[in-house]
Design goal:
- The structure holds two protein chains of two kinds.
- By secondary structure, chain A is mostly helical.
- Chain A has six helices and no strands.
- In chain A, helix 1 runs antiparallel to helix 2 and helix 2 runs antiparallel to helix 3.
- Chain B is mainly α.
- Chain B has one domain: Helix Hairpins (Orthogonal Bundle).
- In chain B, helix 1 packs antiparallel against helix 2 and helix 2 runs antiparallel to helix 3.
- Chain B is elongated.
- The chains are: A mainly alpha, B mainly alpha.
Chain lengths: 170, 100
């Protein structure tokens, strides 16, 4: 077993356990913390795959900004234990069946059609350095990049409007 | 080297855990976090295949997905806060006033 494979297997164990922990935690704060662990693990996967810029964006944007926002809202609302467990009786069995079907389909595609995908080859020098990413981002993907800024502006305005106290108009 | 199939399997498992979370949890915030987990699984696959084919476009796409996810979280959490203010709950089974 090579070092890469060992790192991959142990990290994927951590990632899956963290995801399951998010799924089954009764307390939403624990769910958020497990999800942060998962995001950090995925960031290490990005590093293994030779994507340092994406890994840093993952840590700062996902594990940093987004999850802090989640934790902030959970604690603001006091919503961490809002789960009385009075779900409709048929929901959980149906969800389990659908999940197993999805899992079987994914397993079929991965194991039965595995000849379709190649192994990962060693990356050429300078692959996915921040400089290379920036060059592609500001040449071929310049228009989507600018549209993203408009999207973020719209999201910011929308969030402010939605959470503003409703004032008496007229 | 790790075969890209392994990344495929890991991404599929994470995605399925996220989908299960959407199906079985009742807390709207946890459902939202499950959606983030699914986005993350898709991102992992993008980066894995970008590396397989030595192409940068997959990573650029992940960059855009992260930006869209940030916008989505801002608006989604604002919606949840607004719903909580008016209904005092974010249990999605209680939010059925649109039902006929």
């Amino acid at each position: 077993m090579t070092v890469d494979l060992f790192i991959f297997l142990s990290l994927s164990l951590v990632a899956i356990v963290a995801a399951l922990g998010m799924l089954f935690s009764k307390n939403a704060v624990y769910s958020a913390l497990f999800l942060i662990l998962n995001f950090a693990t995925v960031a290490v996967f990005y590093l293994l795959l030779g994507a340092p810029f994406i890994a840093m964006a993952q840590v700062t944007v996902y594990a940093g900004a987004i999850m802090v926002l989640f934790l902030f809202v959970i604690m603001l609302l006091g919503a961490e234990l809002l789960e009385p467990g009075q779900t409709r009786g048929w929901q959980r069995p149906l969800a389990s069946i659908l999940t197993l079907v999805l899992l079987a389909e994914a397993a079929y595609l991965i194991f039965a059609r595995s000849d379709l995908v190649a192994d990962i080859t060693p990356a050429p020098a300078g692959y996915a350095s921040p400089q290379a990413i920036g060059e592609v981002l500001f040449s071929r993907y310049l228009l989507p990049f600018e549209i993203t800024s408009i999207l973020l502006l719209v999201a910011m305005v929308g969030a402010i409007i939605l959470t503003k106290k409703v004032s008496k108009r007229i | 080297m790790v075969p890209v199939n392994y990344y495929f399997a890991l991404s599929a498992i994470l995605f399925i855990i996220g989908a299960t979370g959407v199906l079985i949890r009742r807390n709207a915030i946890v459902i939202f976090m499950s959606i983030e987990l699914m986005l993350n699984a898709a991102n992992l696959l993008f980066v894995a295949f970008a590396r397989t084919f030595n192409h940068l476009d997959g990573q650029i796409f992940v960059f855009f997905v992260i930006a869209v996810a940030a916008a989505e979280v801002a608006v989604g959490l604002a919606l949840i806060v607004a719903i909580f203010r008016s209904r005092q709950t974010i249990d999605i089974d209680d939010l059925s006033s649109m039902k006929g």
